[in-house]
Amino acid sequence: MTTDADNPNLLDPFEVRVLAVLAEKEALTPDNYPMSLNAITNGCNQLSSRDPVMSLSEETVAETLQRLMQRKFVNGITQAGARVTKYEHRMRIKWSLEQDKVAVLTILMLRGLQTAGEVRTRSGRLHEFKTVADVEQALQFLIDKYPPLVSRLNVAPGAKEPRYGHLLSGEEALAREETAASFGGSTGAGQGSQSGRVAALEAEVAQLRQEIGDLAAQFAEFKKQFE
Known about the structure:
Layout: H1 13-28, H2 37-44, H3 58-70, E1 74-77, E2 86-89, H4 91-95, H5 99-111, H6 116-122, H7 132-144, E3 150-152, E4 164-166, H8 171-184, H9 190-224
Antiparallel strand pairs: 1-2, 3-4
């Protein structure tokens, strides 16, 4: 019997995260795209809009990028006079996708299992869907691809809508994610999870302050050129 482990076309969790970060930042920060290794690493380790939260080293991200480039998911670009290589995703070309489908797939890759309504709410900056039906149409397109990129899950007990998940890591990985999500929803560890969210937000605020400080320093350096 063939299993996911036998399928060479599947992506591991790090590859999924790196690829999704490239697709996300292309839409959110086009002025800083293609992206440097450092920027991709920061995007992978971002505390907001990520499920699960990861902590990847630059070395791990660099190795992941090499694997993705070998499989034509990512391009490495070295511009004349540039000190670092920049990277861009090839999801549109690889899977023949328009931006609405890229947006839906990216959100599922970054944030795990979601309903069509959640995808619509969270994908606004990547692509503006007018209705949930528009999201469902994009999801169905991804489901109908061969091989399929997305799967529609059965409605969970107590839920009103089905959730969707990507299949880039295979059906077995999606099944494990569905099982983990069902247990996670019934743990009752509200206080602990709330404390974790507060800590994550505090860490992100500190990171944002550092980034603002770095930008201010860069601007000051830039301004000196005209004084």
